[in-house]
Every structure is written in C-alpha cells, then in structure tokens.
Design a protein that fits this description.
Blueprint lengths: L1 H34 L3 E8 L16 H6 L1 H7 L23 H31 L2 E12 L3 H13 L5 H16 L5 E12 H16 L4 E7 L2 E4 L10 H6 L4 E12 L10 H12 L6 E9 L7 E2 H7 L4 E2 L1
Parallel strand pairs: 1-4
Antiparallel strand pairs: 1-7, 2-3, 2-6, 3-9, 4-5, 6-7, 6-8
Helix pairs in contact: 5-6, 6-9
C-alpha cells in the first residue's frame, strides 16, 4: 500500500519542487533588482467616475393611453414597440370632427410625438455625459540635484495635502507646479504628452502612465494617495553610498512628473525650450477643481542622499529634451 501511494504522489512531489525552485529564483532576482534601485515620492488621487451621470434616464410612461384604448396603446407608450396609429380622415369629415373621441385621439398623438422627441433629446444628452471627452496630460521636468530645496518642498506638500477631495487635489497641483515655476534655474530637461479620449479609455491611459513611472523606482518612501499617507525610512530602499556615487557618473538629477486627467480638451505645447516648459506648467496649474478628475505628482529620488545619475536619466527618460 505504501509503495502504491508513493508511486502516485511522486509526480506531484516533483511538480511542487519545480514550482518552489522557480518561485524562489524569480522573486529572489526581483528583490535583488529592486535593492539596486532608487527611492520615489508620490502624491495625488481622484476618480474618473465622478463624470458619470448622477441619474439614469427612464422613459416617461404612457400607461393612461394604453389603458383607455387597449388596441392603440401599444404604439403610443415607447418609441420602439407596437405600431403608430394615425386617425382616419373620416373622423374629421362629416360629423365626428368635433367629437370628444377625436380630440382625445389628437391629444394622444401629440403626447406621443412630444415624448418621442424628449426621449431622443435626453438619450443624446445622457450618452454624451456618460462617456465625455477627457484629456490625460503628462509633464516631466529634469532638474539638477542642487534643487534639494525643491525636493524638500515636494515632501512638505505631500505631508500636508488633503488628497481626499477635489479641492485638495487642485491645491496640490497648483502648489506643485508653482514650486517648479519658482526654480527655473535648475531646469535641465523637459517633456510633455497629451492624449484626448473618451472617459473609459482615458482612465486606462492615466493608469498606464502612472504604472510606467512607478516602475522606474525601487520603492516609494513617501506617498499620499487618496487621503492615505505612508512614509518609510530611507534605509528601506538600498540607495548608493557616497563612496559608490563618487565612482559613478558625477551628474546627478531629480525628475518630477505631473500626470493629470481633466474634462474637456487640454492643450500643452511641445517642449523645446524653457518657455514651452513654463507654458505647460502654467496650463496644468490652472486646471480648476470642477474639471480635474485625477492627478498624481511623482518625483525621484525622494530619500535623502539618493541620486539619479546621468546614465539613469538617459536610459529611463529618453524622451526628455534639453531646455
């Protein structure tokens, strides 16, 4: 019996061992890769769902006419069912034209036409509101590492901002763009990107941009997302030591990324110089709270002593241009 059980479970045991080895190998390598990365900060929040209509459309009922004129009611109540009744011309000629029955028929027809036009108009409005046009925009600024004061300012904004409502998110966006506008002497690189789409696909594009930027850091040592503040010690991310930095490329940078989802069309210039970058930041900072759907501000490095080298800048942000 023992021999039979061993033979049956032997293939299963082999499978478990193989999967255990693969799991250990993959996650062990992933941990080593993250340990060699850099820190990041992140703040923001919002929801694309607040653009959805607050009420659903319900076609008006015409039950009264159906009840009074059973055979005719199928054509009056709803635009798609039954048949359309049109009174015979003989009703208006030779004695019946002024009868109460004729007036009721005319009232029913008028009511049907009014409801049909109203339903068509409300249907168009509801369709436009449920999937409106949305802009998703991204502006990135590469700064010299000397801008440590800006880095600290972003940390302070993240610590005190209310990211749980639209007004707080609009203020966060304004303060972040203002912090960048106050330090043009540190600007080295810049880039912008805008995509306009319907609500459903715009939300997916916003999330794609966020994930792409978050994947460039080993971990977020400071985050304030949707009212939830989290802070980790810088030692949680294995940043380079001063001795290691001295052996690497001496260039050091900070990258700040602003990603915004807003109702309507948002025009950002293609960044080819500092004037274009200034215009793009002003456009983002001017987005009002009633139009702002979601915003995230990400910056790297965030932990003190961590840097972004020139080689990392070129490899991770190839689309940015010198300003």
């Amino acid at each position: 019996m023992k021999k039979i059980l061993t033979q049956r479970f032997k293939p299963l045991l082999k499978t478990v061992v193989v999967f255990t080895m693969i799991f250990s190998l993959v996650f062990g390598q992933a941990h080593d890769a993250l340990a060699a990365g850099r820190s990041g900060g992140r703040m923001g929040g919002g929801s694309f769902r607040r653009s959805a209509p607050s009420r659903s459309y319900r076609a008006p009922s015409s039950g009264g006419y159906r009840g009074s004129y059973g055979g005719y009611g199928g054509g009056y109540g709803r635009g798609g069912g039954g048949f359309f009744f049109f009174p015979s011309p003989w009703l208006f000629l030779g004695g019946g034209g002024g009868s109460l029955f004729t007036l009721l028929i005319l009232a029913a027809i008028g009511s049907y036409l009014f409801q049909a036009f109203r339903q068509a108009a409300d249907g168009q409005t509801t369709a436009g509101v449920s999937n409106p046009s949305v802009s998703v925009a991204k502006v990135q600024v590469g700064l010299l590492a000397d801008a440590r004061s800006l880095q600290k300012e972003l940390n302070q904004i993240a610590m005190k901002s209310n990211t749980g409502n639209s007004a707080g998110l609009a203020k966060l966006l304004q303060e972040s763009t203002l912090a960048l506008l106050r330090h043009p002497e540190y600007w080295v690189y810049g880039g912008s990107q805008t995509k306009q789409a319907r609500l459903e696909s715009a939300e997916a594009e916003f999330n794609r941009m966020i994930l792409m930027e978050r994947s460039k850091v080993a971990g977020e040592t400071l985050s304030n997302i949707a009212g939830e503040l989290k802070q980790k010690d810088g030692s949680a991310i294995a940043v380079s030591t001063p001795e290691e930095l001295a052996q690497r490329d001496p260039g050091a940078y900070i990258v700040v990324t602003l990603i915004v989802g807003t109702e309507g069309k948002l025009n950002l210039p293609t960044i080819n110089g500092d004037d274009d970058l200034r215009t793009a930041l002003n456009v983002l900072g001017a987005v009002s709270s009633d139009k702002l759907l979601a915003v995230e501000v990400l910056w790297t490095p965030q932990a003190e002593g961590d840097v972004l080298t020139r080689d990392e800048m070129v490899s991770d942000y190839p689309s940015l241009k010198l300003v």
